[in-house]
Amino acid sequence: MKLLCSQSDLSTNLSLVSRAVPSRPNHPVLANILLQADAETNQVSLTAFDLSLGIRTSFSAEVWQGGAIALPAKLLVDITSRLPEGEITLDDEASVASTGEGLIVTLTPKSGCYQLRAMSAEDFPELPIIEDAEPIHLTAAALIEGLRGSLFATSADETKQVLTGVHLSVKQDTLEFGATDGHRLAVVETTNESPLGGSGELEVTVPSKALRELERMLAHHAADDAIALYLDQGQVIFEWQNQRLTSRTLEGQYPAYRQLIPRQFERQITVDRKQFLSTLERIAVLADQKNNIVKLTIDHASQELTLSCEAQEMGSGRESMPAEISGEDIEIAFNVKYLMEGLKALPSSEIQMHINQNLTPVIFTPLGGLKMTYLAMPVQLRS
Amino acid sequence: MKLLCSQSDLSTNLSLVSRAVPSRPNHPVLANILLQADAETNQVSLTAFDLSLGIRTSFSAEVWQGGAIALPAKLLVDITSRLPEGEITLDDEASVASTGEGLIVTLTPKSGCYQLRAMSAEDFPELPIIEDAEPIHLTAAALIEGLRGSLFATSADETKQVLTGVHLSVKQDTLEFGATDGHRLAVVETTNESPLGGSGELEVTVPSKALRELERMLAHHAADDAIALYLDQGQVIFEWQNQRLTSRTLEGQYPAYRQLIPRQFERQITVDRKQFLSTLERIAVLADQKNNIVKLTIDHASQELTLSCEAQEMGSGRESMPAEISGEDIEIAFNVKYLMEGLKALPSSEIQMHINQNLTPVIFTPLGGLKMTYLAMPVQLRS
């Protein structure tokens, strides 16, 4: 293998794939990035894989001699990212014979020479493929919206297994993202641009770690870029342009969350999202001192929503804001963290709260635009 | 006490002084910020003090009733910084009588009301003062230069006592900053703009924590702002405009570092500082894998400086750069961290290395401008 490429192409692509290199690999080869160079197409592909999450990217280079080799990820990323802009050659030829101690790759920037111990490409595990599957097509924008509105509500507790992922449901015309940690629930419905054939619905739960990487990789893509999504029960693959992300799926039955969402409500409140959120952030300073509980007082007569918190040892706070209120007065309390996280993820400038009683599920929806539903459970108000 | 001020004045000044609030206070009152309001001058001053470092600032406000009170630092800073721009009233009147449980301060922004438990101003310790001392006058620029060129070389090891501070020596026309952790030494000489009278020289060692806060506070000041410096053996005070920083000094004899600096050298190398530093950063990736040692090869014939590292298990690297070299060829090795930190702090685009033998102290100086000396000890080169 021998090739010439630009420092920026190599460094950018290395830093993308290196996110899938495990910090504590089970096998030494997993601490490497697989480099494959094709002399016919003049394409170089890089792959990292922790046996659950896999990322592959490719870019153009001048490939003098094709081949494949597994390169130490951390050293290569750290050195390449610190090199100045310019051309770099990568070569594993000369040194094999001379050292007799195994593979060495030589990295030659303009003014120096780095030799790194490498491993055989044959030791590197194959990325999973899904055969005979028809992809679902999504725009980058729809995928980003779905991830942004659901990922935050997954559980961070690894023992909760299926709840650490986002549940994707492919229906006739829609792709639905659902996430819950047992305390709150977020659901986003986006458009599936390739209506399903006779195969019915598909459902799969994808680890949030893989989806966070996907969100990061898509952040720099144009909103209407097409993303192909391949699903089966064990694997999911996202593919676009020169990049591919694969992930195993999570096993286990995902909760039937739709039945948790009430259909009728006794009270409805429309309020400015940013004002609600910034007020909560101030009240949270006091709530942090106690049990994280904030009280909402909904006053129909004055058409005002009041947030308050009493942290007896430290002090108390209270702020009011205008709201459009239908239904009777009520006092209701929430964990301030669940309220803030939901409000941050809701995509509209005004939001609606739909309330029945002070201990039944409360639904938050954006006003117009994206179809998102956020459910938070109120808590007992202790005085 | 009752006053009206702007959110931005209150928040900016609170965040400045809060740096001196201890994270684990020995006494409850130290977790507070002392607020003093003067109805005659319409000035509000804020003070925080951890019994070693003290910071005081003041700003203009509409003081309706003067007074002093100690306010809970964390709550006040966190709430005030999250409030929108606008007017705020602070008031400790009404609530004292009504609660009967001690002091409460009421913070009233435009759309809400916060009540925080406070403490009596009488419990708050007095900031130290230095009586009968003539101040030394410095510009902000000179002080920042001195701190920037010395603070990085102090020891982070609290058991090293006097080495955790910067040693300030006031001489007839100069103020010298010296710092060493036992492995390297940084010395900066700046101009003392108020020549001493008959009192001779003054020396004092100031904790680096206090000087880092000073550096941060001065970062937004004009280069020619005048800073007054009061010194005695137990305390040091920096004072400018509406701000003051006090610190206890460190006890113990500071090493006589001047005698460590050689006066004559057998070799001299002039090199571009940024190129030297960025090359070191790449070689450091390999050095990190082994013992942090980088080898410098100085070649008179080719007028080249070569940096290299062999990390046998991982690989090796080598880069060369042009240099102006006088004296014979030599190989010399350093801890890469000490070399990088010194090069970062040197203020010129080109620097000079002054070398005798491969195990004697090496001196780094900037070319032109500021008078800074950096001394690093070479290490044994193991092959």
UniProtKB/TrEMBL annotation, chains A, B:
Which part of the chain is the DNA polymerase III beta sliding clamp N-terminal domain?
Answer: 1-128
Listed under GO biological process in this entry are: DNA strand elongation involved in DNA replication
The chain positions of domain DNA polymerase III beta sliding clamp C-terminal read 258-379
Q: Name one GO cellular component term.
A: DNA polymerase III complex
UniProt KW Nucleotidyltransferase keyword: yes
Q: Which of UniProt's keywords are assigned here?
A: Cytoplasm, DNA replication, DNA-binding, DNA-directed DNA polymerase, Nucleotidyltransferase, Transferase
Tell me yes or no: is Transferase among this UniProt entry's keywords.
Answer: yes
Protein origin, superkingdom:
Bacteria
Role played:
Confers DNA tethering and processivity to DNA polymerases and other proteins. Acts as a clamp, forming a ring around DNA (a reaction catalyzed by the clamp-loading complex) which diffuses in an ATP-independent manner freely and bidirectionally along dsDNA. Initially characterized for its ability to contact the catalytic subunit of DNA polymerase III (Pol III), a complex, multichain enzyme responsible for most of the replicative synthesis in bacteria; Pol III exhibits 3'-5' exonuclease proofreading activity.
- Membership in a protein family: Belongs to the beta sliding clamp family.
| Name of the protein this chain belongs to | Beta sliding clamp
